[in-house]
Give the backbone structure.
Amino acid sequence: MYDICLVAHFAYGALAGGCNGHIGGVERQTSLTARWLAARGHRVSLITWDEGQPDDAVIDGVRVIKMCRQDAGRRGLRFFHPRWTSLQRALRTADADVYYQNCAEYVTGQIGLWCRRHQRKFVFSVANDPEVEPELPGMKRRERVLYRYGLRVADRVVVQTRSQQARLRAGFGCDSVVIPMPCPGPPDGQYRPPPPPDGLRRVLWVGRICQQKRPDRLLELARVCPDLQFDLVGPPARDAYSRDVLQQADSVRNVTVRGAIPRKQMLDIYRGAACLCCTSDIEGFPNTFLEAWSLGLPVVSTFDPDDLIASRALGAAARDLPGLAAALRTLLNTPQQWLKASANGRRYYLENHTVETILPRFERVFLEVLHGRAARSPTNGAIPCDSATLSTPS
């Protein structure tokens, strides 16, 4: 058994079971991975922001090591102190054999640099499609430099889709292994196939209410589909866009804004819907898709990872608002098509995203980098990521 440290600044709430702070797919998957590795007998630590938790709290066998508070320090200086200094202190405290981080940011380079200097192994996982785009949209120059460095020195890079793998190789010259993300769902003995929609048909939208997720499209969709009911679930970002979306939603009679809902109640929310709707242009592989498919709920989406929705008939993929409206009407008014999408979604989930299927593959990656073996993907051959010294990109 080994010492494994996962770095996820916002993951304390997901591990502790709270609903405060930002808890997205990355945080849920990281906390799930930490618990599973601890149950396997590894000594697992998780580095997060200080959210008021006690020092060295242990949750489900996972040691939580806190950094500084997210808002600590003076603007303009906090990047170095206390953020970077407290991260280095936490990495030393963990004293792990291998460090893992998911989601591209400047922290990727900071962890990679620390691991290189202290001869520790580093595994990085891509969370979203923009992280494999050469221009790295949304990142400042300093963040881009550190992230690219982290990619180069990582002992292994994990991606979620073949599309991400191809773009990472083309844009960064970096090889990777494809491992889908895990999602807990009901086993066959507890699974209840949902019936096709009848009567009041509810369309579910789940995510952070922010511009990247494009919930404004859902409001437009509700206006052109007055015969359907739409549930908007998720916490708002603290910006003018989110406030405007919520204000507009109040005037759309067939939209119900439900806000953030505790995880324990989400099962009933999914089961009360006819389908899940995604309105994003950019994603990685939404955790909400996996949650929906695990329950046999079709997905209608403007984002289709590796063309899975279209090619495997897991719901319907659309390019724009008229396409979404047409796809919803066809799916919800055609029981045979809906039942086929429901069964296909459940089958796809069982074959590709159960905890028992995926997390042993992550464990295998950690063990391979520790023992210096080249990893192999079932479909992609092989994969260490090239190393290089820190340099400023052109």
